[in-house]
Amino acid sequence: MYRRCAIPGCDRHVSLTEPHHLRFWEHGGGTDLSNLLPLCKHHHDRLHAEQWDVEMAPDRSLIIRRGGEVIMTTGPPTTQWA
């Protein structure tokens, strides 16, 4: 589904990513694909350190907020193959 890290502009190959739970494991988030997003270590660490809020649409496009303000958006992962 993904060719690289899900963060816009990151070119880290998906084999070098970590699964991020959109709904955190400790809050009942499952390990199924609908709750996981591939992030490189750099972006995964930033997401937690800067408390990014990631909202994923049914087509897996993303809206990423920090402090309530949109800082990034993506289309669905199929656009990575273009």
From TrEMBL:
Pfam family, one: HNH
InterPro entries found in the cross-reference section: HNH, HNH_nuc
Database matches in CDD domains: HNHc
GO molecular function: endonuclease activity; nucleic acid binding; zinc ion binding
Location of the HNH domain: 9-50
Gene3D superfamilies hit by this protein: 1.10.30.50
Name recorded for this polypeptide: Unannotated protein
Organism: freshwater metagenome
